[in-house]
Amino acid sequence: xxxxxxxxxxxxxxxxxxxxxxxxxxxxxxxxxxxxxxxxxxxxxxxxxxxxxxxxxxxxxxxxxxxxxxxxxxxxxxxxxxxxxxxxxxxxxxxxxxxxxxxxxxxxxxxxxxxxxxxxxxxxxxxxxxxxxxxxxxxxxxxxxxxxxxxxxxxxxxxxxxxxxxxxxxxxxxxxxxxxxxxxxxxxxxxxxxxxxxxxxxxxxxxxxxxxxxxxxxxxxxxxxxxxxxxxxxxxxxxxxxxxxxxxxxxxxxxxxxxxxxxxxxxxxxxxxxxxxxxxxxxxxxxxxxxxxxxxxxxxxxxxxxxxxxxxxxxxxxxxxxxxxxxxxxxxxxxxxxxxxxxxxxx
Length: 347
Description:
Elements: E1 2-4, E2 34-38, E3 42-47, H1 48-57, E4 70-74, E5 77-79, E6 82-84, E7 96-101, E8 131-137, E9 166-173, E10 177-179, E11 184-186, E12 189-191, E13 201-203, E14 215-221, E15 233-240, E16 252-259, E17 266-273, E18 278-284, E19 294-301, E20 312-323
Parallel strand pairs: 1-3
Antiparallel strand pairs: 2-8, 3-7, 4-5, 4-8, 6-7, 9-20, 10-13, 11-12, 14-19, 15-18, 15-20, 16-17, 16-19
């Protein structure tokens, strides 16, 4: 899928101060950067007419830019791009730049916590879903090379057996609730802490003893399963959403169940813990445990004697499974296949 690119451009000028790891070490003071805002995951194209207008505003003469020197950065890391027409070392009117971009996730939110492991939902950002990509070019005369993709042509694919499946990750992330994390014990009551604490962030509806719900149901699409591939993997993150200060033992217990049809459930996990905690698990499932359309995960709080209130919340759930090459009519689809030095036949 290709999209016309709508973006905003800014010029960054920086001076070198101290050689400390502030996270902006990728920015070079002698280069200019086009800031590109992304609101939807996909493949984007920057064509010459669009770029030349922005370049003029920044007083950049594109005729002096060697297209082999274009670079793209995201989260401080250079990503590979495709530059059409770069072989003549001139960025012409028919040339363009293409790149794959994702919306913002919660990875950068980890820096808000004293311990990055305390962030439960790393898929959905607490700040914004808009991500920023930065296009720049290496100065003329520099021996530095940029990360560019090249065209690959192989017409002798008749002898190569087609891949029968690919790895697909089906994800659900929950943001209807916000857990504030561990607070202070203030005469038996809990006062909120202004710092980001363990388990703080977006989550699903609270469930467990004393809440409005005893369990939480997550529905994950698992269509077009290929049972000959590797075993499916279930990944989930949940949190304890309260702390019983006066209870001197583990005050949370939760079980996880799986079902093909939302009727017969099989227990696959049982955990006990204390207070505000991030529970992050990865479990292998059998192909027979996945439903033909959806697979259902039930998270259920368990009664603990002496504990009147225990709140749990689900943050993210995903199932990675082998899927047939049926994209269900989608014009674009993200998938993975195991790579090696041999050509792959996909159809």
